[in-house]
Every structure is written in structure tokens, then in C-alpha cells.
TrEMBL record:
<keyword id="KW-0238">DNA-binding</keyword>
<dbReference type="Pfam" id="PF00440">
    <property type="entry name" value="TetR_N"/>
</dbReference>
<protein>
    <submittedName>
        <fullName>TetR family transcriptional regulator</fullName>
    </submittedName>
</protein>
<dbReference type="InterPro" id="IPR050109">
    <property type="entry name" value="HTH-type_TetR-like_transc_reg"/>
</dbReference>
<feature type="domain" description="HTH tetR-type">
    <location>
        <begin position="25"/>
        <end position="85"/>
    </location>
</feature>
<dbReference type="Pfam" id="PF17928">
    <property type="entry name" value="TetR_C_22"/>
</dbReference>
<feature type="region of interest" description="Disordered">
    <location>
        <begin position="1"/>
        <end position="24"/>
    </location>
</feature>
<dbReference type="InterPro" id="IPR023772">
    <property type="entry name" value="DNA-bd_HTH_TetR-type_CS"/>
</dbReference>
<dbReference type="InterPro" id="IPR009057">
    <property type="entry name" value="Homeodomain-like_sf"/>
</dbReference>
<feature type="DNA-binding region" description="H-T-H motif">
    <location>
        <begin position="48"/>
        <end position="67"/>
    </location>
</feature>
<dbReference type="InterPro" id="IPR041674">
    <property type="entry name" value="TetR_C_22"/>
</dbReference>
<dbReference type="InterPro" id="IPR001647">
    <property type="entry name" value="HTH_TetR"/>
</dbReference>
């Protein structure tokens, strides 16, 4: 029988592995979505594979076909989210046109990062939890270093006379302000969430205005 011979269900031998793979990917996505909800609700430490399986509507045995434990689930989820962030943060921290007002430049960057984190609240829950797996902590530290570097490069173009140490310090303060604002944003919904996003932008603008001077907003 050739590889293209049809089976009883109308599929060929060649098609069957692809279908099994597609079903497996759908099941993995289902388990990861359930894990995200559980991690956000209970935190990583208190979460269990039984709770994740229950949230996904499957048996623990089904979950163990794909993941040996909750650490493996968290690592897979974290890897996917960090890959997504790496794919897109270049746009959020791209060089700024000198004609762009400071308020607009900061607003655009903050909006992008806030949107990512409010769309994926589990990212903050995992990356800032007390007991996250070591591999995830290392990956997040690398991501943090890269983001700080991008902020430094952006600030260096706006603060050409500043010493490198001052630029680095300013970048860390900006990221610290953003993270503090993000924690408040994720703790609120609706109008209050929007208000905290505005407050975060205002604090960053007031902090950077005297440092950047009139280098932005020029026609």
C-alpha cells in the first residue's frame, strides 16, 4: 500500500500525522490558555496541574501527555510570550522623529507595552512571581537587559551631552516608573485602568521633560 492510499476515514497515511500534529497543537494551546487563567488567579506557586486540567476541561492524564508538570507548562507559556514581545518591542522603542512631541513619543511606547501586558496579564504574574522556574528567570533577565539597552539607545539620541552612566540610570528609572504603573494598571479595570495608564505617562513625561529639553517636538 502506498503512502497516498486512502484509509477508512478518507485520509491518506501522509495526511494522518499532520492531523494528529494539528490536534496536538490545539490541545497544547487549550492547556496553555487554561494555565494562564490559573496562574493569574492563584499565582504560580499555588497553581497545580489538577487545577489547570480542570480549567481546560480535560483529565490530568490528558495534560500529562503533553506536559510532565506545571513548571514545563509555565516555561512553554513564558517562552511563547517572550518570543511575541521580542518580535514586536522594536517598533515600540524605535528611533523617534525629532518632530514628534515628547508626549506622543512616550504615549506610543507606553500604550504598546501596556496593551501587551493587559492582553497577557499572565506575563506579569509569571515573570514577577517569587518562585518562577530558573530558566524563565534567566530568560526574563535577558529580555530586561535588552529592553534597557533599547531605552538607553533611544535616550542617548535625545541626551547627546549626557554621560553614559547618566543615560543608563535614566533608562532604569524610566523602566522602574513603567513597571510601578503597570502593577497598578493590572490591578484595575475600565475607567480606573485608563486613568492609571494616563498617570504613568504623565510621570514619565514630567521626569524626561527637563532631561530631553526641546529635542522633541521640533518641526
Amino acid at each position: 500500500m502506498s503512502d497516498t492510499t486512502k484509509k477508512g476515514d478518507g485520509t491518506t497515511k501522509e495526511q494522518q500525522p499532520r492531523r494528529r500534529q494539528a490536534r496536538g497543537e490545539r490541545r497544547i494551546a487549550q492547556l496553555l490558555h487554561a494555565a494562564a487563567r490559573v496562574f493569574c488567579t492563584t499565582g504560580y506557586t499555588a497553581a497545580s496541574t489538577n487545577a489547570i486540567a480542570r480549567e481546560a476541561g480535560v483529565s490530568p492524564g490528558t495534560l500529562y501527555q503533553f506536559f510532565p508538570n506545571k513548571e514545563a507548562i509555565a516555561i512553554e507559556l513564558g517562552d511563547r510570550l517572550m518570543h511575541e514581545m521580542r518580535e514586536a518591542y522594536g517598533e515600540a522603542l524605535a528611533p523617534v522623529d525629532p518632530a514628534t512631541p515628547l508626549e506622543e513619543a512616550i504615549g506610543s511606547a507606553v500604550d504598546w507595552f501596556m496593551a501587551f501586558n493587559t492582553d497577557h496579564p499572565v506575563f506579569f504574574a509569571l515573570m514577577h512571581g517569587p518562585d518562577i522556574p530558573g530558566r524563565m528567570a534567566e530568560a526574563h533577565e535577558q529580555l530586561h537587559t535588552t529592553v534597557v539597552g533599547r531605552i538607553e539607545a533611544l535616550l542617548a539620541s535625545l541626551m547627546p551631552g549626557a554621560a553614559p552612566a547618566d543615560v543608563t540610570r535614566t533608562a532604569h528609572v524610566c523602566l522602574g516608573i513603567y513597571k510601578a504603573g503597570l502593577e497598578l494598571v493590572l490591578a484595575h479595570e475600565g475607567a480606573e485602568r485608563a486613568a492609571y495608564i494616563r498617570e504613568t505617562k504623565d510621570v514619565l513625561i514630567r521626569y524626561l521633560e527637563p532631561l530631553v529639553g526641546d529635542r522633541l517636538g521640533r518641526a
